Amino acid sequence: MRRFAPQLFAQLFCLPLIAFCAPTLQGQSPVPQIRPEMVQYREWALGNLRRDISQKQYQRQQLLAQAALKNDFRNLQIVNNELMRRIFEVPTNQRPSDKEIRTSLGEIKKLAKRLQLNFAMPEFKSEAAAPDVAMNPGLLLLDKSVMSFVENPLFQELRVYDPELATRASKDMSQILRLSEFLIRLTKERH
Does the pTM exceed 0.90? Predict the structure, then answer.
């Protein structure tokens, strides 16, 4: 009689035994019980998580919008002050060209339109005709309107709303837009 090698015996006997027992071992593992209150809690937690994320995104967008608004407000003053300095304070031979003036006026107009939109200011319809002034007096009127707008107490205390101050700000903004447009046309006509 021949003897089987112990290794061959182990392979022939143990492998089918393992294959036979493995499915029953997996089938005997405990299945977690999912209770309805666990499902409700998970749904509630996911809903709150989504709400928290969207609320944080909204707050972030609000902060970015406020920063952009402050930046536009500040840049309107900077561009206006720089233009007035270059026109009225430098020697005549160093004054900016009409193209440079037009560029600054275009920037003032762009910033004023964005501020009007972001502050939700209505367009103030004026009965007055387009200004008929020369360049330097027109620039002085523009400067006066910009300074009146930025020094409006409505922007100093943002928590207080006064309809009269809001109307004044809207008038100033309309005047800035109208004057900047007129002065841009005036610089084009001077060529």
Answer: no
